[in-house]
Amino acid sequence: MVSPSPLRIVALLFPDVTQLDLTGPAQVFSRLPDTEVHLAWHDTRPVVTDCGWSIVPTTTLADCPQADVLFVPGGKGAFDLFDDKVALDFLRRQAAGASWVTSVCTGSFTLAAAGLLTGRRATSHWSALPMLAELGAIPTSERVVIDGNRITGAGVTSGIDFALVLAARIFGDDVAKRVQLRLEYDPAPPFDAGSPATADPELVAATIGRVDEARLQAVRRAAARLGESAR
Amino acid sequence: MVSPSPLRIVALLFPDVTQLDLTGPAQVFSRLPDTEVHLAWHDTRPVVTDCGWSIVPTTTLADCPQADVLFVPGGKGAFDLFDDKVALDFLRRQAAGASWVTSVCTGSFTLAAAGLLTGRRATSHWSALPMLAELGAIPTSERVVIDGNRITGAGVTSGIDFALVLAARIFGDDVAKRVQLRLEYDPAPPFDAGSPATADPELVAATIGRVDEARLQAVRRAAARLGESAR
């Protein structure tokens, strides 16, 4: 239970990130003792999230310090990163020196496209999860999945659960519980519709229908490149 | 179940806002049909949140369109707004024309300081809730409290529950359930420590100890001003 001091958390920030994928964990991180959070992107101009407004990166991919925890949120933009060699190289370089390599939601696809989940059990948004196999990961339908130093969270809101699990691993259960209490994380969803196991099957089918062919093709192209670079 | 088109949601953005208070609801709002979210502050320069990084306002207090839903997140900065006459006037003006007047966490203190929760049942972060009586509201220990067109959410993470309740009121249960499924909001906290009812009593006492005397005095000064303006 010894943590580096300060603990450096590096999150990749990118256009069309799902805002809550980032902020759920970041809010937990903000309440941890002696912890720095860096938001890294190509440059430090404001980046538009999927909520339609902008967050300002705190550093660049070139200048970012080495992470103790590398974290990749998801969102539509996570798939655009497949073609961004500089961002994927950044993830590989950071991952090599990080104690933990992590993601939430479809951020696991970006990690996998960088070759960082090959042969690892990992999760993602439930509607995209089966596709993760195309990139060499082992799709695992759990809220938070730990395989070695890889920790992945499922869709969007799972980022809060993920971050508390991570906090407990690094700082111990008492610190994680204190953060949970301060964030009043005693959830009371008004409906039981948050998982494909409990939601109306028609609703589930309609949501799966949103994972379109173009996205599958992007994943397959990324998988082909990953195969080439491994040869 | 008729909603205005587009539905205009106006969130007050301010320095030291608790980031998740804003983003939990904003993420739900971002998945609603025909909905605009505006982030309003004095000017459109980036505003530093309690996570240490910045969000860019989309409009100013002067230029902001009339809200259908007025929303105030909480955080340390919510108490600094007590002395900000322009911001409180903005809230009063917007509230007069809004269908719903809402807050999460200590945002209810800002609404109350503007005189917008007088005589209303309302909630807030559990550790601050009793103080809400000083500002004329009726502290109500529930996750989401509805009193007329006022809806308040409890601490931080309750914003997600609050926003789903609001979405159901405006768009109907089916739309809210669809958003819940897309955000995979099927929470699985690793500990049962998110409420003072379940957390370790020592942890609860330590967290209450953080609500300091200075904050209570600020609330009392705001209450005195509210009393004067009501005379």
UniProtKB/TrEMBL annotation, chains A, B:
<dbReference type="GO" id="GO:0050549">
    <property type="term" value="F:cyclohexyl-isocyanide hydratase activity"/>
</dbReference>
<dbReference type="InterPro" id="IPR029062">
    <property type="entry name" value="Class_I_gatase-like"/>
</dbReference>
<protein>
    <submittedName>
        <fullName>Amidotransferase</fullName>
        <ecNumber>4.2.1.103</ecNumber>
    </submittedName>
</protein>
<dbReference type="GO" id="GO:0006355">
    <property type="term" value="P:regulation of DNA-templated transcription"/>
</dbReference>
<feature type="domain" description="DJ-1/PfpI">
    <location>
        <begin position="8"/>
        <end position="167"/>
    </location>
</feature>
<dbReference type="InterPro" id="IPR052158">
    <property type="entry name" value="INH-QAR"/>
</dbReference>
<dbReference type="Pfam" id="PF01965">
    <property type="entry name" value="DJ-1_PfpI"/>
</dbReference>
<dbReference type="InterPro" id="IPR002818">
    <property type="entry name" value="DJ-1/PfpI"/>
</dbReference>
<keyword id="KW-0456">Lyase</keyword>
